[in-house]
Records
---
Amino acid sequence: MVRRIQVALCATLVLTAITALGRFVWGGPFPPEQMAEILFASIPVWAFTPLFRFFGIGAKYWAFAGMVGLHLVLWTGAGGWLVVRGWRTMLMGLLVLLGFALVLLPLSGAGWFGAALASGPVGAVLTLAAAVAVYGGVLILARRRGEGVAPVPGRRGFLKTAGFAVAATAGLRLLGNFRARAAAAAEEFWRAVVGLPPEMMPVGKFYTVSKNVFDPTVSASRWGLEIKGLVERPYKLTYEELKGLPAVTQPATLMCISNEVGGDLIGNAQWKGVRLKDLLAKAGIKPNAVEVILRAADGYSDSFPLKKGLEDGVLVVYEMNGAPLAKQHGSPARVIVPGIYGMKNVKWVTSVELADYDYKGYWEVRGWSDEAIYKTMSRIDVPAGPLKAGEKAHIGGVAFAGDRGIRGVEVSVDGGQTWRTATVKPPLGPFTWVLWALPWTPPAPGTYALTARAIEKNGTLQTSEVRPPLPNGSSGWHSVTIRVS
């Protein structure tokens, strides 16, 4: 029995290595990834916030690691049963292949036979067929060499064992990489909390959130942007054609709707691209159009009112901080929509469609806000540690109100009983956050409750009502406790 499980595990690792190779070389299906996509889509809306709070920004990687483990257990268990059943193994493999192509792939959003994957349906089926064939071949070979239970003697046995060892090593390295990515995401999350952030966040430190385990790799030379729907003249732009159009450069802050009070899923960058209204004007907007629907290379979609899309600040961008968009930020192109949460600033955008109805996108159908207007926030970033009485220090952080702007920030050092006015640095643009600071000398040892609240340009005070991110974004004043010795 032990020998049978060993053989089944080796066959499973070979299958996993083949599908992983196909996934990263030509964009084929990778069963754990599709299983994770189905899991993410199935999480009830009421469970999202507690899960996110417990696992943090690396939650999807931990979930994916769990799917990898489940994948290994299922295939190993099946292999342990099939290894003594000879050519029936191939028949079962064919049934599994059909089930995966007709059920698991469509449920994960990859389409029938993987039609929505980069590999296309032919590449997807060939990848799966090759993996299942090798998996079955290993099991059949093991049975012929000893009915699945006896060790294989001699030189051939050594070669077989060595091959299994190589496959096992590759599989373990693959799992190690997944764990490293999860650890890196969590490390980046905590590191970003410490200290006052730069006004312009470096690309490598800018927060990233997506629905994907593995984000799509989109070739700029093959990419195109369709302008379609309720327009007079539908057309398609290549990457070079987009870059050749009159461009604007503007700074803008993005914030994720799942950001907690005091959280760091927010960042500011310089974006370069073409105004969406110019692209729509070329197509000619039909009178009954009311909604802009964006679709992306990863199957994601979202929308916002056409009235919003015609504002000057809404861009289809291809550069971030003076460089071409990085893969994790939506390369070759994404949409920047000032004033509304990041989930509607679609990455890897491939089409802009005008419609005459209110479209509900990926997150809206899962219970998140349709309007998704930024809520005013302020955050305390410094001091990050204990202070000494009588020594001058600074309380500082960032504040943001979307496209409404920040007039000022007030700080309390006594839990909200009294307030002091902080100095606010002028914003880099109408759509950006601001840095703020307040010189403060702790008068005596003790514990101090520091609290910050922002004031919008029109004089509206940031609400003190504490609300979770779901469904409209979090709200409330950020507070931290500081010890003074």
---
Amino acid sequence: MRTNRLQKKRRSPCLLFFCSLCLLSLCSPHSKNIKDITEQRFVPSHRIKRLVFPEKEWEKKPAESLCRNAGTLDKFTKAVGGSGVIIKNGYLIKIWGDPTGRTMWASATKPVLSTLLLFAAQEGRVEINGKVKAFMPELLGKDQNITFHQLANMTSGYARRESPGQAFSYNDYAVKLYHNTLFNRVFAADPNQIILDKSRFGPLQFQDGELFEQVEKYGWFVHTSPRDFARIGWFWLNKGNWNGEQLLSKEFFERYLKNQVPETLPISVKPARDYLGIGTYGGSGNQSPFGLGNYGMNWWFNAGKRIWPSLPEDTFQANGHWNKETVTVIPSMALVIAGVGDFRPFHPGPGPADSLMGLLAEACGQKTTR
């Protein structure tokens, strides 16, 4: 026992010396510290690369420098037709058609409305789960319990028989209520002045004019070029950060940039009267059976109930006219695709639309087998 203790005592200075050398090595300017090593091990590869942000123009790079099968992008753009842009790591790597041409993006506008809701919450104008009646006292009966969150998730029940939160309905009467409340009551200002304020989207430096344009009877829609809508997609991908400035709290994106509609929620089957007479945002009160398990804050999500099995789970999209105008964001690939064309009929799961979108994964990322 005594011999063992002596041996341990003799080894102790050596151990201390060895540990000291290790600590000095870690502190050396030529060595990586533990935090750096850990971050590089667990942070997705696209986040380790330097992401850039456009100024007056998108910086261009050849697709071949960032995508391993860049030629597949030609198949994608030829199949879609129309016009658009593809952004990778913040660089413009592909254009087709006229990426400067301004067009109306229809329901792809809706996530922009919800982004304005998040700005309003950040500015203390509203609470996301607050009741809309605080701004629209004209609401009656069950509709007095409608929240902004429910309007953004298509579960408000406005112009439907169901109570708020009790059913899902892709409902353009409710979207018109959402639109009118935000623009006329919450912000009470011109939509372009609202969105282009220096504390909101002003720093994005849109190239092709104002963002919103009014469509008679229906309301204000995003009316811009693919290359400018891609800036909004890049803003979403970076969770509200623009070139180092956190314009919109990252916490909002971590909380709301995911499905908000339970897969078990029923689809609305009972229409009711638009008693406010506000009209529709363009469509009917119950346009689609899709949305359960993959919708929220007016985005479509790929996690959970997969819309595009060939794309990564973190994919999300702003969608107009059921796949005519789309902004697709794939954070794990640092990829944004903004385009107007034929993205094939919208239908979750395997099919023509998924096969088309899968070309993006083949070109610029690892194609999933799920």
